[in-house]
Amino acid sequence: MQNLVIIGAGMAAGRLVEHVTEAGGWNVTLFNAEPRGTYDRIMLSPVLAGDKTYDEIVTHTPAFYEERGVACRFGERVTAIDRAAKTVAGRDGTPLPYDKLVIATGSNPFIIPLPGHDLDGVIAYRDLEDTERMMALAPGQKAVVIGGGLLGLEAAAGMHARGVDVTVVHLMGHLMERQLDEAAGYLLRKELVGRGINVMVSTNSQEILGEGGHVRALKLENGTELPCDLLVMAVGIRPATALAAEAGLATGRGIHVDDQMITSDADVLAIGECVEHDGEIFGLVAPLYEQAKVAAATLAGAEAAFVNRETATKLKVTGCDLFSAGDFAEAEGREDIVFRDPGRGIYKRLVLEDNRLIGAVMYGDTADGGWFHGLIKDRTDISEMRETLIFGPAFQGGDVLDPMAAVAALPADAEICGCNGVCKGRIVEAIEGGADTLEGVRAETKASGSCGTCTGLVEQLLAATLGDAFEMPAAQPICGCTDLTHEDVRRLIKSKELKSQAAVWQELGWTTPNGCHVCRPAVNYYLLADWPVEYQDDPQSRFVNERKHANIQKDGTFSVVPRMWGGITTAGELRAIADAADKYNVPTVKVTGGQRIDLLGVRGEDLPAIWADLGKAGLVSGHAYAKGLRTVKTCVGTDHCRFGTQDSTGLGVKLEKALWGSWTPHKVKMAVSGCPRNCAEATCKDVGIVCVDSGYEIGVGGAAGMDLKEIQPLAKVATEDEAMTHVIAFVQLYRENAKYLDRPYKWIAKVGMDWVRARIADEGERQRLVDAFALSQSIYQKDPWAERADDRTARAFAPLADLTLEAAE
Amino acid sequence: MSWIDVGALDDIPLRGARKVKTKLGCVAIFRTDEETVFATTNTCPHKGGPLAEGIVHDRKVTCPLHNWVFDLETGEALGADEGRIETFAAKVEAGRILIDAALLGQKAA
Fold first, then answer.
1. What does the DSSP assignment read for A392-411?
2. Which CATH class is domain A631-780?
3. Residues 588-617 of A with CB under 8 A from B
4. Would the CB atoms of B36 and A330 count as touching at under 8 Å?
5. CATH class of A122-235
6. What is the pLDDT of residues A213-265, one digit of tens each?
7. Does CATH number 3.90.480.10 belong to domain A544-621?
8. Is B17 exposed, middle or buried (0-12, 13-18, 19+ CB in 10 A)?
9. Do B6 and A803 touch (CB under 8 A)?
10. Domains contained in chain B, CATH given
11. ipTM
12. Of A47-51, A344-348, B29-33, where does the model show the most confidence?
């Protein structure tokens, strides 16, 4: 009999032991660094959650090894392999000869080398010992999990099920980004947060803080400290290749093996998470079992070849129903089929290439996962069933339905509005009872009043029931990505508390993966206006001017306009502007209509440098590019003018200092004139104040662009403070209610000046608006130029690479 | 085909773009997904707008000057507009962005 030595008793090795002992012919010695035989590592999460016990997940008992005649050396690490002598050495150094050797050392958890990573209470999630550390936490204790992947979330859910207060910190923008796309990641996060697990995405850890050698808290890059009694790092695994590399075997990311699982030494095989096959490394169990089978055949002298097949993933967290298989990254020649059912929290996405299904992600309803996985594995041609593919196997073979005919053919008890549980019969009854408009049906039945995705169906029912008497409403959807109007989306973002773009796309049934250039800037604005604290502004959803903080010109250069508060400047500022114009070869310097100086023709790469230079003289961004407060134009008022009635310059400066930096649906221009002669031209501004002897006349909704409009009176107030609160309240009312890209005059025409006036006149409402504005400003009133002047952010303005230089070398 | 490393994937934000200067002119690199990039000429055929400054959505980009929309896979203008941008091979490997080495422009050098 020949000697077979196996290093490692993980799941791949366990399967190999079964195969070789069944075939017979080997003296098998099994080393394992863990003091136990093979158990089902995948089931550690159910053990942690309390759904199973350790005994239930042991796959190979002492009796099994004894029966099969396996010499077990558990709790013993192999320290060296001598390939020339064909021996391995264990703890005592005595060489043990082998004829064939199988390395199955598995993987090591990756520990981020944060300061404090070696403190007691910082663990990985890999083996039973780690699991037991987590299980030892008492209800009410705190744990932080770094890593929102499969293992991290299972650890978090398991500890949470034991009453531990858990926070997950994840570097990427959404959970399980390797298995899930953004929409499915959003639904998963919603479920976990709903259970009471704190989930932080796009979050960088900085340092692990300790006390007496034990972990005390995790400090984040933004300075926040998350107190914890245990910190679990679940950020990935690295193949354990050290032993093989020391023995001189070929390794890359893992131990190199061929299709027969043979390493660079013909007598040494490797299987499991420690190997690299054809550039791939492995973390899921199915391919590992396949490798064990192939290795056993190779050892028996039979022909076998390992082929890496598509693997499906399921998260083992009770109640989180998700499925992911194949490849769902975007790439050339690929098409998506997306299905969303916001009412039931369902998301499905299929990725097609050359009439074949190559990837599938599902959340909420994964019943068809196996069927889709089969189509992926078998590379089935799906062109015949493409139209109905996403509905699963039950829908195949029927005719494709016309949606209009389909609605007409629905039975009376068919549910139309999932949110409010309204069926077709009830809606038809309401229409026949006199509700002959969409609003009427909404008021009568609540159908389409919540998420709004069934609006189209309700309208079709109106059309079918009333015939020609019903005119389809002319309400314009935002864009081709949705049937909802701007007003619908604003209302739903507030009422359904949607706080991320992914939430809007999913809950409101967007038909595209991530919107388009029309809806994204609007949705980004609505989210940051309604949820200033919770939502994070997305620069990639902004037009170039707001992303670059400068106006793009027709030749691709930019214009730079520093802020001059109320139009007031100083000799020092003018000198700094002149110096900058010289230094950066600015071709045109122009005085603007809003009492500012515009430097036109600055190269994109120079922007951070010119801002830094201007910043040194105290100049900040003038937001001349923003859907936000542009300028407050003033006249000299009582300071110098013999007609001035109030300090119009002072009020203008105060308004500008209060309002700068806030984002609004469209640009906002203001002016304060010191007397009715109106030298600051206040009567054609979005907000214009005309000072009179007795106080301040505030008007709103003026325009002097494509339309010419005179302001309408909002209020007349006696003091400067009142003037400030009225203007701020008006701006906030506009921010909260207007459609994106509606200037105030357009918005006022829709809601009516009386409504605006009444809201601002109400003292309680006015104070609420002022407070809401202050909250938003606490986050958004930052000079974007200063923020982008440091080296790291400045780099984003330069080309990613310059290959013209490299080519010349 | 040989490839040149032009930078880290993380240097381009999700649904963002950066430009790369080459001997054959500026090339825009778009990151449409966590792991997916596309490379095209940076210049819109309409009025020369810098496409790397446009809004990236799905596998498309919208020119910042006049809202022409291009399919990044084929380079074709979408909708009513007619035109095409040149596309180049690009891929991501181990967190690095690689583009077709032909863009080094040896011919022009």
1. -GGGTTSPPPPHHHHHHHS-
2. alpha beta
3. 604
4. yes
5. alpha beta
6. 999 999 999 899 999 999 999 988 899 999 999 999 999 999 999 999 999 99
7. yes
8. buried
9. yes
10. 3-103 (2.102.10.10)
11. 0.89
12. B29-33
